[in-house]
Prior knowledge:
Largest sheet: 4 strands, antiparallel
Cofactor: [4Fe-4S] cluster; cob(II)alamin
Strand content: 5-15%
Strand order of the largest sheet: 1-2-7-4
Binding site for [4Fe-4S] cluster 1: 205, 208, 211, 265
Number of strands: 11
Binding site for [4Fe-4S] cluster 2: 215, 231, 258, 261
Distance between the termini: 62 Å
Function: Catalyzes the conversion of epoxyqueuosine (oQ) to queuosine (Q), which is a hypermodified base found in the wobble positions of tRNA(Asp), tRNA(Asn), tRNA(His) and tRNA(Tyr).
Low-confidence stretches: 1-8
Order of helices and strands: HEHHEHEHEHEEEHEEHEHEHHHHH
Domain 4Fe-4S ferredoxin-type: 193-225
Amino acid sequence: MSHQSHPVPIQLPDVHVAAQMAATIKGWARELGFGNIGITDTDLSAAEPEFLKWLDKQYHGDMDYMAKHGTKRTRPAELVPGTLRVISVNLNYLPADAADGWQVLESPEQAYVARYAMGRDYHKVMRQKLQQLCTRITETFGSFEYRVFADSAPVMEVALATKAGVGWRGKHTLLLNRQQGSWFFLGEIYTNLPLPVDPPISAHCGSCTACIDVCPTAAIVAPYELDARRCISYLTIEHQGSIPEELRPLMGNRVYGCDDCQLTCPWNKFAVKTSEPDFAVRHGLDSLSLVTCFGWTEAEFQQKMAGSAIYRIGYTQWLRNIAVGLGNAPTSMAVIAALKPRAQDENALVREHVAWALAQHQAHAHEGLC
Protein backbone atom coordinates (compact mmCIF):
# COMPACT_ATOMS: atom_id res chain seq x y z
CA MET A 1 0.00 0.00 0.00
CA SER A 2 1.35 3.39 -0.89
CA HIS A 3 0.29 6.97 -0.75
CA GLN A 4 2.28 9.59 -2.62
CA SER A 5 3.13 12.62 -0.46
CA HIS A 6 3.10 16.22 -1.72
CA PRO A 7 2.04 15.25 -5.23
CA VAL A 8 2.11 17.58 -8.18
CA PRO A 9 -1.47 17.46 -9.49
CA ILE A 10 -1.81 16.15 -13.02
CA GLN A 11 -3.52 18.54 -15.40
CA LEU A 12 -5.69 16.76 -17.94
CA PRO A 13 -6.40 19.42 -20.57
CA ASP A 14 -9.40 17.77 -22.23
CA VAL A 15 -11.57 14.68 -22.31
CA HIS A 16 -9.56 13.10 -25.12
CA VAL A 17 -6.36 13.19 -23.08
CA ALA A 18 -8.19 11.75 -20.05
CA ALA A 19 -9.70 8.97 -22.17
CA GLN A 20 -6.32 8.10 -23.67
CA MET A 21 -4.75 8.02 -20.21
CA ALA A 22 -7.48 5.66 -18.96
CA ALA A 23 -6.99 3.37 -21.96
CA THR A 24 -3.23 3.31 -21.36
CA ILE A 25 -3.69 2.43 -17.68
CA LYS A 26 -6.07 -0.40 -18.59
CA GLY A 27 -3.56 -1.77 -21.07
CA TRP A 28 -0.84 -1.80 -18.42
CA ALA A 29 -3.23 -3.50 -15.98
CA ARG A 30 -3.84 -6.32 -18.48
CA GLU A 31 -0.10 -6.72 -18.94
CA LEU A 32 0.13 -7.30 -15.16
CA GLY A 33 -2.41 -10.11 -15.43
CA PHE A 34 -5.62 -8.37 -14.42
CA GLY A 35 -8.72 -9.57 -16.26
CA ASN A 36 -11.21 -6.72 -16.27
CA ILE A 37 -10.44 -3.11 -15.35
CA GLY A 38 -13.07 -0.43 -14.77
CA ILE A 39 -13.16 3.12 -13.45
CA THR A 40 -15.94 4.64 -11.38
CA ASP A 41 -16.71 7.66 -9.23
CA THR A 42 -17.10 7.57 -5.45
CA ASP A 43 -20.89 7.77 -5.24
CA LEU A 44 -22.15 4.67 -3.41
CA SER A 45 -25.38 6.30 -2.20
CA ALA A 46 -27.41 3.51 -3.84
CA ALA A 47 -25.48 0.80 -1.99
CA GLU A 48 -25.28 2.50 1.42
CA PRO A 49 -28.90 1.92 2.59
CA GLU A 50 -28.68 -1.80 1.72
CA PHE A 51 -25.42 -2.14 3.62
CA LEU A 52 -26.88 -0.41 6.70
CA LYS A 53 -29.93 -2.71 6.57
CA TRP A 54 -27.60 -5.72 6.41
CA LEU A 55 -25.81 -4.50 9.53
CA ASP A 56 -29.09 -3.84 11.33
CA LYS A 57 -30.07 -7.47 10.77
CA GLN A 58 -26.79 -8.50 12.47
CA TYR A 59 -25.91 -10.56 9.40
CA HIS A 60 -22.24 -9.62 9.89
CA GLY A 61 -22.03 -11.74 13.05
CA ASP A 62 -18.72 -11.28 14.89
CA MET A 63 -17.22 -9.18 12.11
CA ASP A 64 -17.25 -5.98 14.16
CA TYR A 65 -14.96 -4.32 11.64
CA MET A 66 -17.87 -4.25 9.18
CA ALA A 67 -19.65 -1.69 11.38
CA LYS A 68 -16.91 0.20 13.17
CA HIS A 69 -15.75 2.51 10.36
CA GLY A 70 -18.98 4.49 10.10
CA THR A 71 -19.53 5.80 6.59
CA LYS A 72 -15.92 5.38 5.45
CA ARG A 73 -16.86 2.08 3.83
CA THR A 74 -19.67 3.55 1.74
CA ARG A 75 -18.03 6.92 1.09
CA PRO A 76 -14.55 6.43 -0.40
CA ALA A 77 -13.59 10.10 -0.14
CA GLU A 78 -14.02 9.87 3.65
CA LEU A 79 -11.63 6.93 3.83
CA VAL A 80 -9.06 8.58 1.55
CA PRO A 81 -9.67 12.35 1.33
CA GLY A 82 -9.27 13.73 -2.15
CA THR A 83 -10.42 10.53 -3.88
CA LEU A 84 -12.21 11.29 -7.15
CA ARG A 85 -12.08 7.91 -8.88
CA VAL A 86 -11.75 4.25 -8.05
CA ILE A 87 -9.92 1.97 -10.46
CA SER A 88 -11.35 -1.53 -9.94
CA VAL A 89 -9.63 -4.69 -11.18
CA ASN A 90 -10.10 -8.43 -10.98
CA LEU A 91 -7.47 -11.17 -10.90
CA ASN A 92 -8.28 -14.80 -11.75
CA TYR A 93 -7.15 -17.31 -9.13
CA LEU A 94 -8.36 -20.80 -10.09
CA PRO A 95 -5.28 -23.02 -10.69
CA ALA A 96 -5.38 -25.12 -13.84
CA ASP A 97 -3.97 -28.18 -12.06
CA ALA A 98 -6.23 -28.18 -8.97
CA ALA A 99 -8.34 -31.23 -8.16
CA ASP A 100 -11.98 -30.90 -9.16
CA GLY A 101 -13.90 -29.19 -6.37
CA TRP A 102 -17.00 -31.39 -6.55
CA GLN A 103 -14.87 -34.54 -6.43
CA VAL A 104 -13.20 -33.36 -3.20
CA LEU A 105 -16.57 -32.46 -1.64
CA GLU A 106 -17.84 -35.93 -2.56
CA SER A 107 -14.82 -37.55 -0.88
CA PRO A 108 -15.67 -37.07 2.82
CA GLU A 109 -12.27 -38.26 4.02
CA GLN A 110 -10.62 -35.33 2.23
CA ALA A 111 -10.40 -31.72 3.45
CA TYR A 112 -12.04 -29.12 1.24
CA VAL A 113 -10.13 -25.83 1.12
CA ALA A 114 -11.65 -22.89 -0.75
CA ARG A 115 -9.98 -22.71 -4.15
CA TYR A 116 -8.74 -19.16 -3.52
CA ALA A 117 -6.60 -20.25 -0.57
CA MET A 118 -4.58 -23.08 -2.11
CA GLY A 119 -1.63 -20.88 -3.11
CA ARG A 120 0.06 -17.72 -1.87
CA ASP A 121 -1.89 -15.17 0.17
CA TYR A 122 -3.79 -13.11 -2.39
CA HIS A 123 -3.54 -9.91 -0.34
CA LYS A 124 0.18 -9.74 -1.03
CA VAL A 125 -0.07 -10.69 -4.70
CA MET A 126 -2.84 -8.17 -5.43
CA ARG A 127 -1.15 -5.33 -3.54
CA GLN A 128 2.14 -5.90 -5.34
CA LYS A 129 0.47 -5.82 -8.76
CA LEU A 130 -1.56 -2.71 -7.93
CA GLN A 131 1.57 -1.00 -6.64
CA GLN A 132 3.40 -1.91 -9.86
CA LEU A 133 0.58 -0.32 -11.84
CA CYS A 134 0.71 2.87 -9.77
CA THR A 135 4.49 3.05 -10.12
CA ARG A 136 4.19 2.86 -13.89
CA ILE A 137 1.53 5.59 -13.93
CA THR A 138 3.83 7.81 -11.83
CA GLU A 139 6.86 7.17 -14.03
CA THR A 140 4.92 7.99 -17.19
CA PHE A 141 2.48 10.74 -16.22
CA GLY A 142 3.94 12.18 -13.02
CA SER A 143 3.10 12.02 -9.33
CA PHE A 144 -0.49 11.55 -8.26
CA GLU A 145 -2.35 10.64 -5.09
CA TYR A 146 -3.38 7.04 -4.68
CA ARG A 147 -3.92 4.23 -2.23
CA VAL A 148 -4.23 0.57 -3.16
CA PHE A 149 -6.55 -1.94 -1.52
CA ALA A 150 -6.78 -5.72 -1.58
CA ASP A 151 -9.54 -6.78 0.80
CA SER A 152 -7.57 -4.85 3.42
CA ALA A 153 -9.71 -1.88 4.53
CA PRO A 154 -13.33 -0.72 4.70
CA VAL A 155 -13.91 -0.85 0.95
CA MET A 156 -17.13 -1.97 -0.75
CA GLU A 157 -15.37 -4.02 -3.37
CA VAL A 158 -18.36 -5.58 -5.10
CA ALA A 159 -20.38 -2.36 -5.18
CA LEU A 160 -17.46 -0.44 -6.68
CA ALA A 161 -16.64 -3.19 -9.19
CA THR A 162 -20.30 -3.31 -10.22
CA LYS A 163 -20.40 0.45 -10.79
CA ALA A 164 -17.13 0.26 -12.73
CA GLY A 165 -18.50 -2.36 -15.09
CA VAL A 166 -16.13 -5.14 -14.02
CA GLY A 167 -19.11 -7.44 -13.53
CA TRP A 168 -22.52 -7.68 -11.86
CA ARG A 169 -23.47 -8.75 -8.35
CA GLY A 170 -24.76 -12.31 -8.36
CA LYS A 171 -27.52 -13.64 -6.12
CA HIS A 172 -24.82 -15.19 -3.93
CA THR A 173 -23.49 -11.58 -3.44
CA LEU A 174 -20.22 -12.28 -5.31
CA LEU A 175 -19.27 -10.51 -8.52
CA LEU A 176 -19.93 -12.30 -11.81
CA ASN A 177 -18.58 -11.70 -15.27
CA ARG A 178 -19.79 -13.31 -18.51
CA GLN A 179 -16.27 -13.97 -19.79
CA GLN A 180 -14.67 -14.99 -16.47
CA GLY A 181 -17.31 -16.35 -14.11
CA SER A 182 -16.50 -15.54 -10.49
CA TRP A 183 -13.22 -17.27 -9.64
CA PHE A 184 -11.33 -14.00 -9.17
CA PHE A 185 -10.16 -11.51 -6.56
CA LEU A 186 -11.02 -7.83 -6.58
CA GLY A 187 -8.64 -4.95 -5.95
CA GLU A 188 -8.93 -1.18 -6.00
CA ILE A 189 -6.92 1.99 -6.46
CA TYR A 190 -8.40 5.10 -4.85
CA THR A 191 -7.03 8.10 -6.73
CA ASN A 192 -7.41 11.81 -7.41
CA LEU A 193 -6.98 11.36 -11.17
CA PRO A 194 -10.03 12.83 -12.95
CA LEU A 195 -10.42 9.91 -15.35
CA PRO A 196 -13.58 9.16 -17.35
CA VAL A 197 -15.87 6.63 -15.67
CA ASP A 198 -17.07 3.37 -17.22
CA PRO A 199 -20.74 2.35 -17.39
CA PRO A 200 -21.98 -0.64 -15.40
CA ILE A 201 -22.89 -3.79 -17.31
CA SER A 202 -26.26 -5.53 -17.23
CA ALA A 203 -26.90 -8.41 -14.82
CA HIS A 204 -27.40 -11.91 -16.21
CA CYS A 205 -28.57 -14.12 -13.33
CA GLY A 206 -32.15 -14.11 -14.62
CA SER A 207 -34.42 -16.58 -12.83
CA CYS A 208 -31.54 -18.90 -11.85
CA THR A 209 -31.38 -19.81 -8.14
CA ALA A 210 -28.66 -22.48 -8.31
CA CYS A 211 -26.44 -20.74 -5.74
CA ILE A 212 -29.32 -20.30 -3.29
CA ASP A 213 -30.46 -23.89 -3.68
CA VAL A 214 -27.01 -25.44 -3.22
CA CYS A 215 -25.86 -23.49 -0.13
CA PRO A 216 -25.20 -26.18 2.52
CA THR A 217 -26.33 -24.02 5.45
CA ALA A 218 -29.00 -21.89 3.73
CA ALA A 219 -26.86 -18.81 4.33
CA ILE A 220 -28.16 -17.07 1.19
CA VAL A 221 -31.44 -16.09 2.83
CA ALA A 222 -32.75 -14.26 -0.26
CA PRO A 223 -31.35 -13.24 -3.63
CA TYR A 224 -28.41 -10.87 -3.04
CA GLU A 225 -28.69 -11.29 0.75
CA LEU A 226 -26.23 -13.35 2.80
CA ASP A 227 -26.49 -14.10 6.52
CA ALA A 228 -22.78 -14.48 7.28
CA ARG A 229 -23.56 -16.14 10.61
CA ARG A 230 -24.66 -19.25 8.67
CA CYS A 231 -21.99 -19.04 5.95
CA ILE A 232 -19.29 -21.72 6.11
CA SER A 233 -16.66 -19.24 4.94
CA TYR A 234 -17.51 -17.05 7.92
CA LEU A 235 -17.72 -19.98 10.35
CA THR A 236 -14.35 -21.46 9.36
CA ILE A 237 -12.41 -18.21 8.87
CA GLU A 238 -13.87 -15.14 10.57
CA HIS A 239 -15.62 -16.79 13.53
CA GLN A 240 -13.16 -17.54 16.31
CA GLY A 241 -15.40 -19.24 18.84
CA SER A 242 -17.44 -22.41 19.01
CA ILE A 243 -19.22 -23.36 15.78
CA PRO A 244 -22.97 -23.72 16.45
CA GLU A 245 -23.74 -27.42 16.86
CA GLU A 246 -26.72 -27.38 14.52
CA LEU A 247 -24.50 -26.12 11.68
CA ARG A 248 -21.63 -28.59 12.16
CA PRO A 249 -23.21 -31.56 10.32
CA LEU A 250 -24.02 -29.25 7.39
CA MET A 251 -20.38 -28.26 6.96
CA GLY A 252 -19.32 -31.66 5.66
CA ASN A 253 -15.60 -31.69 4.91
CA ARG A 254 -15.28 -27.93 4.27
CA VAL A 255 -12.45 -26.91 6.60
CA TYR A 256 -11.50 -23.51 5.16
CA GLY A 257 -14.11 -21.55 3.28
CA CYS A 258 -16.80 -22.83 0.94
CA ASP A 259 -17.22 -22.68 -2.84
CA ASP A 260 -20.52 -24.47 -3.44
CA CYS A 261 -22.25 -21.36 -4.78
CA GLN A 262 -19.42 -20.85 -7.26
CA LEU A 263 -19.07 -24.50 -8.21
CA THR A 264 -22.73 -24.65 -9.16
CA CYS A 265 -22.95 -21.29 -10.94
CA PRO A 266 -23.57 -21.73 -14.70
CA TRP A 267 -21.39 -18.72 -15.50
CA ASN A 268 -18.32 -20.51 -14.16
CA LYS A 269 -18.38 -22.70 -17.25
CA PHE A 270 -16.59 -19.69 -18.73
CA ALA A 271 -14.16 -19.25 -15.82
CA VAL A 272 -10.61 -18.39 -16.87
CA LYS A 273 -7.87 -20.39 -15.15
CA THR A 274 -5.14 -18.31 -13.57
CA SER A 275 -1.72 -17.84 -15.15
CA GLU A 276 -0.33 -16.47 -11.88
CA PRO A 277 2.36 -18.85 -10.49
CA ASP A 278 1.73 -17.61 -6.92
CA PHE A 279 -1.76 -19.14 -7.03
CA ALA A 280 -0.53 -22.65 -7.90
CA VAL A 281 -1.54 -25.33 -5.40
CA ARG A 282 0.83 -25.67 -2.45
CA HIS A 283 1.26 -28.63 -0.06
CA GLY A 284 -1.50 -30.64 -1.73
CA LEU A 285 -4.20 -28.33 -0.34
CA ASP A 286 -6.53 -29.13 -3.23
CA SER A 287 -7.17 -32.68 -1.99
CA LEU A 288 -5.59 -33.12 1.44
CA SER A 289 -6.61 -35.95 3.77
CA LEU A 290 -8.47 -34.81 6.91
CA VAL A 291 -6.50 -37.28 9.01
CA THR A 292 -3.20 -36.03 7.60
CA CYS A 293 -3.76 -32.31 8.22
CA PHE A 294 -5.27 -32.96 11.66
CA GLY A 295 -1.99 -34.65 12.57
CA TRP A 296 0.15 -31.59 11.84
CA THR A 297 1.96 -30.12 14.81
CA GLU A 298 1.74 -26.37 15.31
CA ALA A 299 5.24 -26.01 13.88
CA GLU A 300 4.20 -28.01 10.80
CA PHE A 301 1.09 -25.88 10.35
CA GLN A 302 3.12 -22.67 10.56
CA GLN A 303 5.77 -23.98 8.18
CA LYS A 304 3.34 -25.30 5.57
CA MET A 305 0.90 -22.37 5.76
CA ALA A 306 3.53 -19.59 5.81
CA GLY A 307 2.63 -17.13 3.06
CA SER A 308 -0.89 -18.58 2.79
CA ALA A 309 -4.21 -16.88 3.59
CA ILE A 310 -4.86 -19.88 5.87
CA TYR A 311 -2.01 -18.89 8.18
CA ARG A 312 -3.99 -16.01 9.66
CA ILE A 313 -6.72 -18.20 11.20
CA GLY A 314 -4.07 -19.87 13.35
CA TYR A 315 -3.50 -23.43 14.47
CA THR A 316 -6.40 -23.62 16.96
CA GLN A 317 -9.08 -22.67 14.42
CA TRP A 318 -7.49 -25.00 11.89
CA LEU A 319 -7.84 -27.93 14.32
CA ARG A 320 -11.38 -26.85 15.27
CA ASN A 321 -12.45 -26.85 11.63
CA ILE A 322 -10.85 -30.20 10.82
CA ALA A 323 -12.37 -31.78 13.93
CA VAL A 324 -15.79 -30.92 12.52
CA GLY A 325 -14.77 -32.41 9.17
CA LEU A 326 -13.64 -35.59 10.91
CA GLY A 327 -16.92 -35.73 12.83
CA ASN A 328 -18.72 -35.72 9.50
CA ALA A 329 -16.41 -38.28 7.88
CA PRO A 330 -17.30 -41.96 7.60
CA THR A 331 -16.45 -43.85 10.78
CA SER A 332 -13.14 -45.64 10.49
CA MET A 333 -10.25 -46.74 12.69
CA ALA A 334 -8.06 -44.04 11.12
CA VAL A 335 -10.54 -41.27 11.92
CA ILE A 336 -11.03 -42.42 15.52
CA ALA A 337 -7.26 -42.82 15.95
CA ALA A 338 -6.74 -39.25 14.71
CA LEU A 339 -9.38 -37.78 17.02
CA LYS A 340 -8.71 -39.59 20.29
CA PRO A 341 -5.27 -38.13 21.10
CA ARG A 342 -6.75 -34.63 20.92
CA ALA A 343 -9.68 -35.43 23.21
CA GLN A 344 -7.51 -34.04 26.03
CA ASP A 345 -6.03 -31.18 24.02
CA GLU A 346 -4.82 -28.26 26.09
CA ASN A 347 -7.12 -25.92 24.16
CA ALA A 348 -10.76 -25.95 25.26
CA LEU A 349 -12.07 -25.02 21.80
CA VAL A 350 -10.27 -27.96 20.21
CA ARG A 351 -11.42 -30.33 22.99
CA GLU A 352 -15.04 -29.30 22.53
CA HIS A 353 -15.09 -29.95 18.80
CA VAL A 354 -13.14 -33.21 19.11
CA ALA A 355 -15.63 -34.41 21.74
CA TRP A 356 -18.48 -33.60 19.36
CA ALA A 357 -16.74 -35.44 16.52
CA LEU A 358 -16.16 -38.55 18.62
CA ALA A 359 -19.79 -38.45 19.76
CA GLN A 360 -20.90 -38.54 16.10
CA HIS A 361 -18.94 -41.73 15.55
CA GLN A 362 -20.18 -43.30 18.77
CA ALA A 363 -23.73 -42.57 17.64
CA HIS A 364 -23.02 -44.15 14.26
CA ALA A 365 -21.54 -47.23 15.94
CA HIS A 366 -24.60 -47.51 18.19
CA GLU A 367 -26.90 -47.21 15.18
CA GLY A 368 -24.95 -49.98 13.50
CA LEU A 369 -25.58 -52.29 16.48
CA CYS A 370 -29.30 -51.60 16.59
